[in-house]
Amino acid sequence: MSPRAVPPDSVIAAFGVGHEPVLLEGGQGGTWRAGQVILKPVEFLAETLWRAEVFDGLAESSAFRVARPLRTAAGAWVCEGWEASRFVEGEPDVSRTDDQLRAGIAFHAAVADLPCPAFLEQRDDAWSHGDRVAWQDVAHRASAPATRLLRPLFDARRPVSLISQLVHGDLPGNVLFAEGLPPAIIDWPPYWRPTAWASAVAVADALCWYDAEPDLITRWQHLPEWPQMLIRALIYRIVTHDRAFGAIGWTPDHVGAYEPVIALVLSSR
User: Fold this and answer.
1) Are the CB atoms for 183 and 175 separated by under 8 Å?
2) Nearest Cα to 14, choosing from 88, 77, 87, 86?
């Protein structure tokens, strides 16, 4: 299915949508809004069905909101390769990393008792590969630019002993803020890792791409194995980019965004 495919009339009817769908900006360019309903193509069916069941049964919280999934008139979560959810008010604000982390911590507490889903082992994309390399589950043959960035991180990586659980692996941009409402957590890519790692990914992103001040690291240094979580977060992002784009994807701006953050993280150990 094309990333910009329009939801067909049969899908719109199945989910009971009463408005013309409008393409939303951001993401991978395949998400549509029709009134109070969000429609998007299913990327990995097993994950979509699992996430719908989890979000459908998740208790309401004063600390965060989620986009509740919608069933078709026949009771299915998916129709012709499309899924639907309720629209949630809010806009992303990548400058609010601390608020993203607080929402993420509350969300992780709410899903802490869920078992690890089997589909995580089946998922094979650049992000899953980057995660596995970061945690030394697999190796990666890196391009020359990525090798230079990764070498000091690999050298500084040490074993850790932390409990893993389901976490949100991409909080920046996927936490929406609206006046008077708890933050909304959307587009959940689940990983089975320590919660501090999910926070570290958000902090690394903020430092590399969103002009965060270096003291952001210090504010969250109470999280367990914090320097090692930041090292793994950077490895995850660098390897993911390298797997997705290879050597041609490394512009001077990309390399220049990572270099000072790597130095900062390694000096904070």
Assistant:
1) yes
2) 77
The 3-state secondary structure of 62-74, one letter per residue: CCCEECCECCCCC
pLDDT at residue 269, rounded to an integer: 78
Dump pLDDT digits (tens) for 28-48: 668 999 999 999 999 999 999
**Where would I find the beta strands (DSSP E) of the chain?**
22-23, 32-34, 37-41, 65-66, 78-79, 82-86, 91-92, 165-168, 175-177, 184-185, 190-193
d(CA 235, CA 226) in angstroms, rounded, equals 14
The token pair at 179 is 């006046």
Domains of the chain (ranges plus CATH)? 9-88 (3.30.200), 92-267 (3.90.1200.10)
Q: Find residue 69's DSSP bridge partners.
A: 85
- Contacting residues for 140 by C-beta, under 8 A, at least 6 apart: 129, 133, 239, 242, 243
| pLDDT 10s digits, 119-171 | 999 999 999 999 999 999 999 999 999 999 999 999 999 999 999 999 999 99
Looking at the predicted structure, is the pLDDT value of residue 2 above 60? no
